[in-house]
Each structure stands twice: as structure tokens, then as C-alpha cells.
Design brief:
This protein has 629 residues and is α+β, with helices and mostly antiparallel strands. Helices cover 51% and strands 10% of the residues. The chain contains 27 helices and ten strands.
């Protein structure tokens, strides 16, 4: 007969005793279970004992977590958490050096358990650990264990970090600033200061004023990866707690001290793998640095600002006036204004007054900063961009200013400029740490690629509104019509009947792939567009007396195979994709194996065999994660 659902079979261990195999009734009070276990070993006063999981975490069993006990679990009988806490704290207060060390080791082992932590905290355990840390009689293992136990207890959130005293925090800061210090102490001290900085603005100011940035840079440059990570954690915590003005000053100083180059060469490209925690802190550093651009991004151009008007004129002059020459010299004021307005139009501003284009936020003044940076740091590419497009037909010219404004908005969205830091994200970009002005450099590369793509696809200004849209196509439910049209990026797939364009399947003539597609041939060199070429396909159809094409670029190889096979089927042609070949090969292999079974007189049933009933119990289950002592 199967045991009741509430009964689990477990083992209970005790030092210097034979383990008990018992059936634990989960409906019975834990105190009653504990008394039965103690009685089996002839132990009086069962209230002085408790059950723990035997794994490395040593968590105490309570009424709240007893449901985690499963068949095959191994528990151990130990001292009750209140007595254990009292004994350990007593040793800390009056024991010898070796006794304190062993008590601290036991505290570190048990402190992650909430039940035990509450008992320690209620007996002023944090104050006693704080005394050991402040006294600093032993700057080695004992101090490291005290710091670790203190951190484990504080991280339960029972006591606020704001309750720590300033002298205590300054003592921990002293450990961080000391040159000769045990390697196990400083990472823990940095971790404690990080938590203080993130949790208490008042104590965070103490940390900021007492821990020099140069000291953190020293810790970052050691070979100890754990110390590096904790130093980076405190650095990002200080940056997060600083005001925007202070943050800018701090980052400027760090960049002057070559922190960016060090991160790029010695952390990102280190021989040792980058840990998840360090990756998160690099993401935070990247996010905070890009966040400095938010003010410019959200500030529109002020038409009454003399400085901003001069910047616009500098942008125009860099494109149309040779060095030392001024074509507008000697002209009347009206002629000069007319000439400037025409040149601003050639630059790609949509309004005769360029200030109106830059009133949009975002990108605000950040777009102007990008354009000025491009004109100053890549003057040849800038002049070539503007003059090249000035000589094209009006409908095919790529407007530099309009493109720059749109591109700046897109870069801000992709890099999440101005968004708060995620608490878990790790997606930093190594490119960000490879350049001093990474955002502006990224713009310079992107604007030139945009111009190149514009030329290859012979785009017109009407295409601007299509750039942010996706092209969606699907087969109608009756398989008679291809329905397609533009949809917004991020929108859910539209209903087929809502798409504006239709192409009857009966009008389809042929399927083209790769370099035979007209939209691939128009894009120039096939070598430069190899990836695009491999995912491109088109269908030709009759459009009046002319042959027209519906062009596609699949997002992946799998999508390419599915669509080309589907269109081939609609056209009555054989499916010729690589995926079809693999599927057929798998089916043929299976068919061959089945035929070989028939040759061996192995009967193959027409119906699958019935599923057997479940066993009467599951006592064979065993938790492999539980380690036996």
C-alpha cells in the first residue's frame, strides 16, 4: 500500500550516531517530529535541538520551509538556532584567539540562514561583530571572517544600512585605503562600502569624501580579479549616488587617468574570462557615461543663443567655404542671408531657418554636437558627403542634416541614453571603451554607412518614413492571395485582411533567389553583400504588360528555407532548399531502418504501444544535489 501523500521517507544524521531512516509526516507539528527523533537517540530536552538540511547551506528546518523536504532528503540534528547563536556570540566576547576564529567560521557558515540570522541580530550580534571590525586587532583571517559574517547578516534586510555609525564606516574605509592589507580583507571591505553607498546617501557622502578615486584605480590595476570586481562595484555605486555635475567631473577625471584604456586592454581583453558581476558593472559604467548626453539630447536649440548660431555657421562654412575665403564677403545683407539659407538647404535642413529643425527633442542639441564633431574630425568625409549630394538630382540627394537628426535619435534609442540602469543587465559594448568619444565616433561611422546605403539603393527622401517600418507579407487563409504592406516596428503581426496590398497566387510566374534577385543586383558588389545575397528571394508576376517583382530578404536561413519552399509549392515546382534535403534524408534513413527491421522478422505494430500505469510509489527518486557527509 502506498504511503499517504503527506509522508516522506528521509534520513536524519547525528554526529557519532547511527543515522535514522524515518517516515516524516508533514501534517505533524515540527516540535513533535523533533521529539521523536531525540527520543530515538535518548536525548532529553528536544527544544534544545533543531533539524537542518545536510547540504552545504545548513539551513534550519522551520514550519515555513518544511515543504522543501522530499523523499530521499538527508537532514541532520543540530543545536537549536537560539542556543547556537548564544554560544557563538559568547565565544566571540570572551573566548581566546583560536576560539574566536572557529566561532566566526561557524557564523559565516550559518549566517545566510534567515532563522539563525534573526537570533544573532536579536542578541546584538551585529554590534559584537562591529567591535571586532573597529578594533582591528587582527588584520588577517579574523577580520575577513568578521566582515563576511557582518555582510551576510546585513543582507537579510532586517537592519538598515543607515543605522551604521560614521566611525565604523571610516574604519572600513581605512582598510580599503591601506597599502599593506590581507588580500581577503579588502574585497569584503569594498563590498560593504558599496552596500553603504547604495543604501544611505549620508554615509555615501562619507565614502565619497574618504575614498579617493586614485585609490580605486590602484585596486582596479591589481591582478586579483575579485578585488578588481569589488573596486569597480564601489566605483559605479559612487557614480550612481553622485549628482549629474559631480558625476561628469568624476568621469572626466577617470578618463584623464586612462581608466577607459585600462578597462579595454586589461579587463575586457584579459586572458581570464570576464565574470557576470564585472560585466554588469561595465554595463552600469557605460550607461552612466552615456547618460551624460541626456541633457544635450533633451535641450532644443535656442535661436537667440549667439554660441549656437555660431556653431551652425561653422557647420555651413566647413562645407561650402574654403579656408581663408568667404564667398559672401562684399554682398549685401539680404544677399548674404539668401545665400546662407540656400546653403543650409543644401546641407539638408528642411526649414530655411535651421534652428527650427533642431527644436525637436530628442535629439535636440546632441544632433548638432554630432554634426560638428563629424565636420571637425572627418572634414574630408564631411565635405565629400555634402558636395556629393548637392550634385545629385533633388529627389535622390541624401540630406545630411535630416539624416543626422534621425540617426542621432536612433542611436539614442539603441544605446538607451537617459534610461535608468538595469539591476541585472550585462550587455555592455566593448566598442564603448575603445574610443574616447565613442558616441560621436559611432555617429561618424554610421552616417557614412547611411550615405553609402542611400547610394546603393538609389533612395529618395520619401524613403525616410519607411526606414522605421517593417515589411510584412503572409499567405491568405485560402492560399489564393499574398497579402503585404508596411507595419510599425515592434507591433504585433497584423490580421491578413488589414494589409493594403494583394498579389493573386495565380499571377505568380517564377521564384528567384540570391544574385538573380533584382534588389540584390541593384545593391552593387555581391562580395560586399554576401550575407544579404544568401537570404534574398523574389517572385516575379505580371503587372499589366510589364513583369514586376515582389522582393524579400529573410531574417534567417530557416525563414529563407520555409518561404522559398512554400512559394515553390504554390508555383507547382519541387522544393529545393537545404532544409528540405535534410528532412528527406532523415525520412529516408528512418524508412531504411524500418525495412531492415522487417528483414530481421521484427514485427512493427500499426499502433503505438500503450503507456504503462504509474508505479505504486516513487521511493526510487533521489536528489543528486544532496551531498552526504
Amino acid at each position: 500500500m502506498a504511503p499517504p501523500r503527506d509522508v516522506v521517507k528521509i534520513a536524519v544524521q547525528k554526529r557519532d550516531a547511527i543515522p535514522q531512516l524515518i517516515q516524516l509526516d508533514q501534517a505533524k507539528p515540527l516540535a513533535a517530529v523533533l521529539k521523536e527523533v531525540c527520543d530515538a537517540w535518548s536525548l532529553a530536552h528536544s527544544e534544545r535541538y533543531a533539524l537542518q538540511f545536510a547540504d552545504g547551506h545548513k539551513r534550519y528546518i522551520t514550519e515555513n520551509n518544511r515543504s522543501e523536504i522530499k523523499n530521499g532528503s538527508i537532514l541532520c540534528l543540530s543545536t537549536a538556532p537560539d542556543l547556537e547563536a548564544e554560544q557563538l556570540l559568547g565565544v566571540l566576547q570572551s573566548g581566546g584567539r583560536e576560539g574566536r576564529r572557529e566561532a566566526l567560521q561557524q557564523l559565516v557558515l550559518l549566517a545566510p540562514d534567515m532563522t539563525f540570522a534573526q537570533e544573532v541580530i536579536s542578541r546584538e550580534g551585529l554590534q559584537k561583530l562591529g567591535t571586532i571590525i573597529e578594533d582591528g586587532d587582527d588584520l588577517g583571517e579574523e577580520l575577513a571572517l568578521a566582515l563576511q559574517a557582518f555582510l551576510e547578516l546585513m543582507e537579510h534586510g532586517v537592519v538598515s544600512w543607515e543605522t551604521l555609525s560614521i566611525p565604523f564606516v571610516k574604519k572600513v574605509i581605512r582598510y580599503v585605503n591601506m597599502n599593506l592589507m590581507d588580500a581577503s580583507v579588502q574585497p569584503l571591505a569594498l563590498r560593504l562600502l558599496e552596500s553603504v553607498t547604495l543604501s544611505s546617501p549620508t554615509l555615501g557622502q562619507v565614502v565619497k569624501s574618504e575614498v579617493p578615486l586614485d585609490r580605486l584605480l590602484v585596486h582596479l590595476q591589481v591582478m586579483n580579479q575579485q578585488l578588481q570586481t569589488k573596486a569597480m562595484a564601489l566605483l559605479t555605486a559612487l557614480l550612481q549616488g553622485a549628482s549629474p555635475v559631480d558625476r561628469k567631473h568624476m568621469l572626466d577625471y577617470l578618463w584623464q587617468r586612462n581608466l577607459r584604456q585600462f578597462i579595454y586592454k586589461s579587463i575586457i581583453h584579459s586572458a581570464a574570462p570576464l565574470g557576470d558581476e564585472m560585466a554588469h558593472h561595465l554595463y552600469v559604467l557605460q550607461s552612466l557615461t552615456l547618460g551624460l548626453l541626456e541633457q544635450r539630447m533633451r535641450t532644443p536649440l535656442d535661436p537667440y543663443s549667439q554660441e549656437q548660431r555660431e556653431q551652425l555657421q561653422a557647420l555651413r562654412q566647413a562645407a561650402f567655404e574654403l579656408e581663408g575665403e568667404s564667398p559672401s564677403a562684399g554682398l549685401s545683407a539680404d544677399r548674404r542671408r539668401s545665400l546662407c539659407a540656400r546653403e543650409f538647404r543644401k546641407l539638408g535642413f528642411t526649414n530655411s531657418n535651421p534652428a527650427q529643425d533642431l527644436e525637436r527633442v530628442p535629439p535636440g542639441l546632441l544632433a548638432l554636437d554630432n554634426m560638428l564633431y563629424f565636420s571637425k574630425h572627418a572634414p574630408s568625409a564631411y565635405s565629400r558627403f555634402v558636395l556629393e549630394n548637392s550634385s545629385r538630382e533633388d529627389k535622390h540627394e541624401c540630406p545630411f542634416a535630416r539624416s543626422s537628426i534621425q540617426l542621432t535619435v536612433l542611436l539614442c534609442e539603441l544605446l538607451r541614453v537617459g534610461e535608468p540602469c538595469s539591476e541585472t543587465a550585462q550587455d555592455f559594448s566593448p566598442m564603448f571603451f575603445s574610443q574616447d568619444q565613442s558616441f560621436h565616433e559611432l555617429f561618424c561611422v554610421s552616417i557614412q554607412l547611411l550615405n553609402k546605403t542611400w547610394k546603393e539603393m538609389r533612395a529618395t527622401q520619401e524613403d525616410f518614413d519607411k526606414v522605421d517600418k517593417l515589411w510584412f507579407c503572409c499567405l491568405s487563409p485560402n492560399h489564393k492571395v499574398l497579402q503585404y504592406g508596411d507595419v510599425e516596428d515592434g507591433a504585433s503581426p497584423p490580421a491578413p485582411e488589414s494589409l493594403p496590398e494583394q498579389l493573386p497566387v495565380a499571377d505568380l510566374r517564377a521564384l528567384l533567389t540570391g544574385k538573380d534577385c533584382p534588389h540584390v543586383r541593384e545593391k552593387g558588389s555581391l562580395k560586399q553583400n554576401k550575407d544579404l545575397c544568401e537570404l534574398a528571394f523574389s517572385v516575379s508576376y505580371d503587372h499589366g504588360e510589364e513583369e514586376a517583382y515582389l522582393n524579400f530578404i529573410a531574417p534567417s536561413r530557416q525563414e529563407f528555407h520555409l518561404w522559398t519552399d512554400g512559394l515553390s509549392t504554390l508555383l507547382g515546382s519541387p522544393m529545393g532548399s537545404e532544409q528540405t534535403r535534410l528532412d528527406l534524408e532523415q525520412l529516408l534513413t528512418m524508412e531504411t531502418k524500418l525495412r531492415l527491421l522487417e528483414l530481421e522478422n521484427v514485427p512493427i505494430p500499426e499502433q503505438p504501444p500503450p503507456i504503462p500505469p504509474p508505479p505504486t510509489n516513487f521511493n526510487f527518486c533521489y536528489d543528486c544535489s544532496v551531498t552526504e557527509p
